[in-house]
Amino acid sequence: MGSLVLCHDRHAVHPYEISRIHCKIFTIEELCYYLCNNLYLIDYTIMNEQLCNWLDEELGMNDLAEQLRDVIRMRGSVEKFVLTILKDSKIYREPEMIRIQNVLERLKNQKDIERQKYKGDNLLESGEIEEAILVYQAILNEEKDESVDEKFYGRIYAGLGAAYGKLFLYQESARMYDRAYQICEDKKLLKPYLYASYRYMSMEEYHILLTKHEDYVEVNAQMRQEMDDIRANLQLDLSEVLLEKWKRQYRRSHV
Question: Are 189 and 177 in contact (CB under 8 A)?
Fold first, then answer.
């Protein structure tokens, strides 16, 4: 998480236990850290009178406790409950609070399984690849959720394909992308599938693969053209660098 500033010294004699994960919390910093690292999994269970009483009696945060009781009485949202805690604690700076608020807004109407995927996607995007894989695998290992369509699971496989690719596990990556394509039938998935296949297969195996689907040859041709364009741009950039270097050398030699 962003910049954490310790500004409270009250330590609870009796900890508050997060029942969902059986985690004991002794300070407001620990509570905020838990909330910020579990935004994707926060639900109504965190919004209760027991937490209000704990903040009041154990940490002496009477005003915050009363604000939270008002949120409960007014049937406010879980998101408002969490933001009230974070804002009152004054632990996180403004840019981080804006990010947290945006995440909560995005998650507000999502199902639990969609929240889990969103967590995996964000972990993948931030470079926490192994953690993202664990989240995606956990979704696939759970009983199938009929409230989401089949393509949702295809996108989970695509996420795994991207994650394995970033770890250079190309055979696993190709297998996940192939599964994703079989479910989603989205031609955009063919390019990463073929690229991963190309990286782990022999040339003979890869050429045989290209004959198995009428779209493979076309996508492969597009990939080759893109690679040629990249090489051409790299050579152009290198030529410009060398030309500039030679110019500097020439000027120095004629001073």
Answer: yes
